[in-house]
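Issue: ligand-bound run for IFG - logging full I/O for the record.

Environment: standard queue, default settings, no custom constraints.

Inputs:
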Amino acid sequence: MTKRLSRTSLLGTAVVSLMALGLPAVATSASAAPAAAHPVSERTVADVIPAPVQAKANPKADFTLSPLTVIRTDFGASPDTKQVANYLAGLLRPSTGYPLPVIAAPNFGWPAISLVLGHADPSAGTEGYQLDVAKSGVTLRANTATGLFEGVQSLRQLLPSQVEAKTVQHTKWTVSGGAILDYPRFGTRSAMLDVARHFFNPTQVETYIDQLSQYKINTLHLHLADDQGWRIEIKSWPNLTKIGGSTEVGGGAGGFYTQAQYTDIVKYAAARHITIVPEIDMPGHTNAAQASYPELNCTGIAPPLYTGTDVGFSSYCVSSPTTYKFLDDVIREISAITPGKYFGVGGDEAHSTSAADYATFYSHVLPIVAKYGKAAVGWHEIATVTPPVSAVPEYWDTSGTNADVVAAAARGNKILMAPANKAYLDQKYNVDSPLGLDWAGLVEVKDAYDWDPATTVKGVDKDSEIAGVEAALWSETISTSDNIEYLAFPRLLGDAEIAWSPKSTHNWDNYSQRLAKQGPRMTAEGIDFYRSPQVNWQ
Ligand code: IFG
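Outputs:
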């Protein structure tokens, strides 16, 4: 029987814990008024990207953080809830310089940002939230810790852009007043990073994960193997990384993730409510593996490592049982360290595999994926082999027509939309872009915003047939975090909005004004974004 603690003693407990943190137990006036800040009207709940379902500004309800503010969860809050509270504290402490203690206590009227699990409107579902900013404090409610995390991303945007700095900034830390009720349109809001053409080390991947999570992306698809590189340790086939991981496009040193490093990336992503989807491209895009093991080649001869950027010249040996023993080991080892539901089976540009062999190949491989408890996601060409309805074909073409994809959707496969002429972040912005490719056309910021998943493929026009959106960043022409930021930002924000926000909010004029306000935020965070002339940056 739990002893009911009186309100007074609870308050006493809270006061003691605040004093223990070296905070005055009695509210004193906040420190000297800081330098004038940007007027709060410059950022309201209606400016958030992705656009919320409902956002009602109330300028009379601004809440200003002070050295006394606490971050509060309920007594006995779940570890996941506390983790979000600590994550929020970690975001706010460096730039405000405030203690912002995280405490688990009833709401005793102390100025607080409260994170409350449960009691959110049922429409918030499993990833949505309710955010209420009042003069007395901020209350964030959600039905899951993920919802609280997504709500924190919106809360961040209600504070001055200086909040994204890593060092103490002197400004008035006012949270713009109002109320938000929000939840996503699509379940899969994905970014793909090609770590095969050029290798990106764990720190670079984790930096990208931080940036993605700010805009409510919840999936990171890692393209771990291609012609130019094999990037994940497979203990039963060590030459895949020893040889296949030893180079990259242009002949650089390449690299790879040990299984321990991959596990750390998975954990880092999970703490930001992002699920990792590992992809081993096949039956084409396989030169790195085949250069590592002669027995993976029908000729029994290993080709040389490849550091160019051609595609379509390689194929696993479909007729050889060794190929499927190999892929069983690969899929088993990676699935064992991948908590997420999906395994990427590639399937694109298999120009050196006949259609019959392609079907034979997947008749062996898809059951292996299922055996290890995963569902398959693959480039849309896998729709030609009639995969299980749990498989997700990812549409990446630019034509907008594909009978196999329409047939798959009719059978119940959900389609992941990544049209290259809209959602490929590796395409140049314009003819002068120093990085990127242009085979799918030039994709300026407005082009990257002007599309909708339900009108991308003729005949796939119901949200229920669509898994979501993926913004794909291929790395033939990039190798640093700055390069990633130049190509991904700001176009990724448009994809995040297309994936999260109601179709009814989709409007370039409104979005471009909200995007302009993200400029100072990205700058404060050190994101080296492309200042498109199409946006009236602040
Ligand atoms: N197509 C290839 C990628 C990459 C890309 C660059 C897919 C599914 C062109 N396959 O996109 O490997 O080379 O834009």
